[in-house]
Automatic annotation (TrEMBL):
Keywords: Carbohydrate metabolism, Disulfide bond, Endoplasmic reticulum, Fucose metabolism, Glycoprotein, Glycosyltransferase, Golgi apparatus, Signal, Transferase. It holds the Pfam family O-FucT. It comes from the Eukaryota. The keyword Signal applies. The lineage of its organism: Eukaryota, Metazoa, Chordata, Tunicata, Ascidiacea. GO terms for molecular function: peptide-O-fucosyltransferase activity. It catalyses: L-seryl-[protein] + GDP-beta-L-fucose = 3-O-(alpha-L-fucosyl)-L-seryl-[protein] + GDP + H(+); L-threonyl-[protein] + GDP-beta-L-fucose = 3-O-(alpha-L-fucosyl)-L-threonyl-[protein] + GDP + H(+). GO terms for biological process: fucose metabolic process. This is GDP-fucose protein O-fucosyltransferase 2. Residues 1-24 form the signal peptide. InterPro entries: GDP-Fuc_O-FucTrfase (IPR019378), OFUT2-like (IPR045130). One of its GO terms (cellular component) is endoplasmic reticulum membrane. The keyword Glycoprotein applies.
Amino acid sequence: MSNCALYFILNLVFILLSYNYAVCEDAKPAGNKRYLLYDCNPGEGFNLRRDVYMRVANLVKSLRESKSCKGDDWVLVLPPWGRISYHWKEHGMEQSLIPWSMFFNVKSMSGFVPVIEYEDYIEEVGEAVIDELWYLQNYAEGWSSGTWEEKMHERDCIENPVYETDSEGKIRGWFWGYEETYAKTFKCVSVQGMSKLFVKPLCGGNTTAKSVMLDRGENMLHDMFGGKRYWDCRRSMVFADALIKTADQFRSKYLDSDDVRDKTVMPENWKDHKCTEDAIGGPYIAAHVRRKDFLYARKEFVPSIKQVAKVLSEKMKEYKVDKVFIASDGTKEEMKELKSLLPGMFMYKPTKTEKSEFKMGGVAIIDQIICSHARFFMGTKESTFSFRIQEEREIMCFPKHTTFNRICSDEGSDDCEQPAKWKIVWKSDSEIWD
């Protein structure tokens, strides 16, 4: 064998050994995998729950970056949808046990923090069990000094939580409709503060449990509302493909709208998106007209049907369009009256199959997608449904004057208070905590 051949063989062996070593290094065991679960008060609506997700997701982001959590591989377990009785009119199990993948692109969400569906969690841990359940509550004494102070303490329960201990000592409760699920331990935790307040107690300060559930997650506040992390998380919440497709088909068929002409084309990966020019939107305007509980809970803000028609007719002339899309929980009679006053009015009316396939949450999202692509949008004051549409339009780079608007009440003046203009944040603002 020549020296050249021997040299070649020795180099090949060295390369193979180096490759195997690198593979072994990459395949080394991950850190201590831990799971964070959460739930909300049953009375909270669909769009508020989406906001609570963002608070918890940012907590998981902080847990994964914190020095005190070194070695812990935190994963967020998505709570199955269901039991939103007021907003989701259909009752029964068909409106429970709903995975997030029915409404959102879970792979896209995992681009912000690792997330898994609850059934995947059960498969990973081998049983429908949660090590610790923390029931979040306010402080019984309220604000002791009248000034804001971040704090958290394990306390006696102010109210009787909807959990019971069975004969085997297992904590039983709703748990998203999964009857087999139980928790090993339970405690009430009074909390007043932002999500990052949970980092220290979750990273060995108060528990080393493999899985922790935070019930009544709405008691946790945003760390940096409107900051880059807020928007990164929000941008990752891309809707499910089936919902986008259905909304796009409606836009094309009835509203002469498509992403290319409307300048609303989005990249496959949300991280690749930047605002380089303003979106135009389809040749229609859109409005969210909230009725029902708002008619008595916020009656001073709610316009009459005639006022809605008057304002929208004026906006249609201003934007030189002859079509208007309405998303509303109004009665059939109210919408019939509005249609008579707005001949160019369209609404998305799901078929029986679509209702069954998309559920109430999916139908609401389709309404939001169509509204968010309009040339001009008007919402309802203090409605999270409207706020989510405004966020979508911010993400798609619509001008703010076409996004942050509302229809004033009949008694309201032409310059009644309009929604706050929340500007999307693209660049980092050093939101890293130890």
